[in-house]
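Hey,

The postdoc asked me to send both predictions to you directly instead of through the lab channel. I've kept everything plain text so nothing gets mangled by the mail client. Protein one:
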Amino acid sequence: MTPRQRRFVTEYLVDCNSRQAAIRAGYAPKGAAHQAWQLLNRRPNIAEAVREGLKAREMRTLITADKALQELARIAFSDIGRLLETRPDGSIRPKPIASLSEADTAAIADLSASEKGMRIRLHDKRLALLDIARHLGLVGKQINSQPGLRAKDELPAREVLRRKLAQMAGEKE
């Protein structure tokens, strides 16, 4: 492996952006995307070095794809109703933080208090669902398919996601 190829591997491990890694490694910006593709797909030693680097990072940080997907699931399947309680007088108030599950607290993006009351904002559920759908291969380029249409016997995407996540959870235990 040349020094520039080693630099490409190092730069790729920074953000997994192959084009930018090629540019930072010294390849011409105009052909960087093609050069990166060549390095990752036509040079087995470079692809292996990237895999080893990613595996080493996973071991160092203890952050796995499964862990990231579980965190996305906590956001994607959050429910603001689990964070609130209705009082006998009909008013709605946030539940005490100590009474919330880890999944519910993980979904909170912002929690602030003012004279007017409490404000709770959750992370973007739609974005989390989209990330999970991409991971599961439910979103992306599909041949001979029209967006928004599905066969009568096909399950809605949300149900497919729930079943796959439940299956993943069962495999882990």
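Protein two:
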Amino acid sequence: MRISASVYAFGDISLEETVKRLDSFGVDYLHVDCNDDPNVFDDVARIRAVSSTPIDLHLVTDRPEAYFDGVRAHGVELCAFQHENVGRSVEVPADLGARMGLSVLPHTNLDVFAPYADRFSFIMVMTTTPGRSGGRFDDMAFTQIRKARQRFPAKAIHVDGGVDDEVSYILRNLDVQLAVSGSYIRKQPTVGSALLTLKANFRDHGHLVRDFMAWPSELPILREGEASLRSVLTAIERSRTGYCLLVDDDQRLAGVVTDGDIRRAMLRALSSGGTFGEHTFALDELVNRSPTTVAPQDTVADMLALLDAAPRAFTFLPVTDADRRVRGAVSFNHLLRSAA
């Protein structure tokens, strides 16, 4: 996941010194907030004078069209405007040169992105008050991120506001491509230590599994009594998760079937001279009846402790309550890609 460092979060030093300090530790983008102030391009010019790091411009204004000439003239690489401030569809010239995005709040209906879907590169989920530094992350943003990923799978997702080390871990897990951080970086002993924790490690701040897990409606879940090998394979293929959850009539987790379970069954069939026809395997022999699970109220630290103690690596964990009813799942298959 890329980190875009907010240049206005360091009020005690000059803009030029801030940019040089951020650049010395290799930040990916320099984030510039514009609260309806055309003079923002004077600051962009000052940044360009000391840095070649790409600029990530966030326009918080009801008239983004007034800024497009500046975006074009200064070669801004990323530019998003805040939907809630505009409240209408905006005509965006094709020659701006910037990768464009739409910034939305966690409760905004994602229908607003549809008019831009053919041309815009990313959706930015704004989790605190747009244009202000130091706000607390809104956990509803996790739901908005998952909705955006489902509805617009080809678009990058950026997140701005309240991103600390633990939130960054969750965002990487949700396949977010870029996170904006300002006050968190400023408060750490060094910029380097802040970037390390944002991209790799984290300390426990108490976020719970239920805050960011995928909900049952988003998962490949089949009733065990109605499932067949074909329906399980179809569910895995459609969901692209690599697994299928089987439940009983009370939605209790009865077992899990993964790509790996099916692959191992095929290898057993080959070793015994069998074939790959649908009736070669009984579904029951593919099901893991005792999968490792986490609870909705577990913290991220609890979950990682469980993973560290496990004898093998996991690509996902079902989330179940005390009665073993399925409440969701957490997938880890985006972590390696987001670290790139």
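Summary for protein two, as requested: Residues 335-340 have pLDDT under 50 and may be disordered.

Thanks,
C.
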